[in-house]
């Protein structure tokens, strides 16, 4: 049997298995799942919750608002809303209030001017939430893996330390998919997170708890990680902003699982937030010394940029067709840039995008520069060195006895199937290099590429099992190592967020961040779920 035909049969079988499991999950939700009185979260009534991190920090520095009032307002919102969305899985309220009082005391005792305080502490007193996969001293760091449920961080991840040094106050840890390996945030320790725009829908993954927490106004800035879209998919599904930086700019130290092999080159840590003006200041803090690789202070004249766009991947048989709502939203952006801004806008067809999933797999399974192979997924599941048999886990799952989620079991079963032989690896590696070269030359230092974030808006719970490859719309840019900002574009007729990815050439993050601010101003940015 031809290798390509065999591969297609395997993929179709995986999709069929996912479809059946998805139907079971949807039936379980219909007959035994949680029932909600309303499909959205309650409206925001506290004005402090509707300010950006930059605005809050300024008010606190200027002593116009007390830090404790800001922190308490967010705690009140979390207590009200988190039981519905299950975004924050570990609270840090008492420590946060103590730190807020310390900020107010410091400001009362010191009479430094606003400029001096901003330079020292750009996020002084600003509430922060952190993906549970990152270390935050005294907080759990399990990544949803049951055998790590008692793992407590003794120190802070590098980016968390930088944000705390900048004055941010962590309120808690947010949910993720098991081992950060799926685009629905659910695990056997903390359960499932729900979309604040419709609780029946997913929040994305793996930084999904962060996405829904920010969207529901339970936090204002957050930390996420991304190796295949784990910042951008949750940002898209929850109608907020998220940025995957150029690789090597922000430290990945202090998160679990830690990437190895070629994955080290493509794993990125980045900011997530409701307001575009927080992206660049957050990135500047999170990057630390790595910020020298970027040109965030360079003025961007949007009219002089070259905009390129594609409305779909070219028709891969693995992925869903792009929703008409998303195509129309993108066309609205394109028309505005061309007719109102007067910018250069060009439609392009990049043929290799059709193979996005294959290119992502090729890069993610490759050896690193040090010759090391990526960590085997099945090894990550091991229980304190005791090997796990994925087939046995699947049987246990069917009996309701497994401590693992079905996506993780499926990935463990199939990870070997997606490692290409030498001939296929060379083919897809050459294709990736060709696409990278074409994009980098096209974009240069003054171009951005507009591309769908996902083929559909946030699907209902369990549906990703029937569409396992749709993540490749974001995954391709991880494989290519390009900076991407996810931007919201309003809501569809059913009240679910629309959005788009803005991509630039290597280390041209300042271009995508500038476009994000313009899009927020033009198309409205984050929209509060529930009426204000």
Automatic annotation (TrEMBL):
One cellular-component annotation, GO = endomembrane system
Pfam families attached here?
Answer: Amidase (PF01425)
Query: What are the alphabetically sorted keywords of the record?
Result: Hydrolase
- What residues does the Amidase domain cover? 69-513
Q: Which InterPro entries match?
A: Amidase_CS, Amidase_dom, AS_sf, FAAH2
Name the chain's protein.
fatty acid amide hydrolase
**Organism name:** Molossus molossus
- Protein origin, superkingdom: Eukaryota
**Family from the record:** Belongs to the amidase family.
The answer to whether keyword Disulfide bond applies is: no
Report the EC number(s), separated by commas if there are several. 3.5.1.99
PANTHER family, alphabetically? FATTY-ACID AMIDE HYDROLASE, FATTY-ACID AMIDE HYDROLASE 2
Instruction: Please give the Gene3D superfamilies that the UniProt record associates with this protein.
Output: Amidase signature (AS) domain
Name a GO molecular-function annotation.
Answer: fatty acid amide hydrolase activity
